[in-house]
Automatic annotation (TrEMBL):
The keyword Transcription regulation applies. It catalyses: a 6-O-methyl-2'-deoxyguanosine in DNA + L-cysteinyl-[protein] = S-methyl-L-cysteinyl-[protein] + a 2'-deoxyguanosine in DNA; a 4-O-methyl-thymidine in DNA + L-cysteinyl-[protein] = a thymidine in DNA + S-methyl-L-cysteinyl-[protein]. The lineage of its organism: Bacteria, Pseudomonadati, Pseudomonadota, Gammaproteobacteria, Aeromonadales. Belongs to the MGMT family. It comes from the Bacteria. InterPro entries: Homeodomain-like_sf, HTH_AraC, MethylDNA_cys_MeTrfase_AS, MethylDNA_cys_MeTrfase_DNA-bd, MethylDNA_cys_MeTrfase_DNAb, MGMT_N_sf, WH-like_DNA-bd_sf. PANTHER family: METHYLATED-DNA--PROTEIN-CYSTEINE METHYLTRANSFERASE. Keywords: DNA damage, DNA repair, Methyltransferase, Transcription, Transcription regulation, Transferase. This is methylated-DNA--[protein]-cysteine S-methyltransferase. Pfam families: DNA_binding_1 (PF01035), HTH_18 (PF12833).
Length: 275
């Protein structure tokens, strides 16, 4: 069993028992490890102890973060790459597919792709000459799904397996010891509304959260929280466009295209590094 598989199992157990705050011994027993080995595994993965993670998971903390986040998107226009957002874990430059490119459906375009291990399980990465066009977590039941989706989206493109080229994206995202010398470029396709939502999400710092309603207000359509939810769910580039940082108004994490347990894991991982 991989480290992430054990961590996911532990997080699933912790989430189901969070109100009574299970002990280290109970959590370790659930994943069939000694308390010593489980604590070492969890701390190596998350950078925090299981006890600290339990604190991160509380509903009260999420509600506090929502209160703190209110000004974040209100000043989104001033949080561009020229300001403090450079200090966040990885700064991202989003470039939308043009109508002409969309009409060509990828004709003449070569897209490199690869599968890589991450702290949150295996991920599929696809890269055009202009930037990352897909980042998806693999589902064990349908590991070929991201490649099939890519081929459907770019039917005229040449898709080639090239993990040596996509590995650099993984290194930039997860090697905290290195500061990127240039932004990660994204090359994504979406409606004007989707693109506006995704750009707003890029303004949310790591370990912070906003609600769907707050994003709707940030894009100038306060009544469009439901449409924002659909745009968040259609995000083709996980983590880099941080849709995981959008939660329900009541403080609950809500759904996630790649699973609520993974969403909880990402929140814990970010909290360990940025709080």
């Amino acid at each position: 069993m991989s480290d992430y598989a054990r961590i996911a199992d532990a997080i699933r157990f912790i989430a189901s028992q969070v109100e009574r705050q299970p002990t280290l011994d109970e959590i370790a027993a659930h994943v069939h490890l000694s308390p010593f080995h489980f604590q070492r595994l969890f701390s190596r993965w998350a950078g925090v102890t299981p006890k600290r993670y339990l604190q991160v998971l509380t509903l009260e903390r999420a509600k506090t973060l929502l209160q703190e986040s209110r000004p974040l998107l209100e000043v989104a226009d001033t949080l561009g790459l020229s300001s403090g957002s450079r200090l966040y874990d990885h700064f991202v430059q989003l470039e939308a597919v043009t109508p002409g490119e969309y009409k060509q459906r990828g004709a003449g375009l070569v897209i490199d792709h690869g599968v890589h291990d991450t702290p949150f399980g295996q991920a599929f990465v696809a890269l055009t000459p202009r930037g990352v066009c897909n980042f998806s977590f693999l589902d064990e039941k349908a590991p070929e799904a991201p490649l099939a989706t890519l081929a459907q989206h770019w039917p005229a493109a040449t898709l080639q397996e090239a993990p040596s080229r996509t590995q650099g994206i993984i290194n930039t995202m997860f090697d905290g010891s290195k500061v990127p010398d240039r932004p990660i470029s994204l090359h994504v396709s979406g409606t004007n509304f989707q693109i506006s939502v995704w750009r707003a999400l890029l303004q949310i710092p790591p370990a912070k959260v906003v609600s769907y309603a707050q994003v709707a207000s940030a894009v100038g359509n306060p009544k469009a929280a439901r449409a924002v939810g659909l745009a968040v769910g259609a995000n083709p580039v996980a983590l880099m466009i941080p849709c995981h940082r959008v939660i329900q108004q009541n403080g609950k994490l809500g759904g996630y295209h790649w699973g609520e347990i993974r969403k909880q894991a990402i929140h814990a991982w970010e909290a360990a590094r940025y709080e």
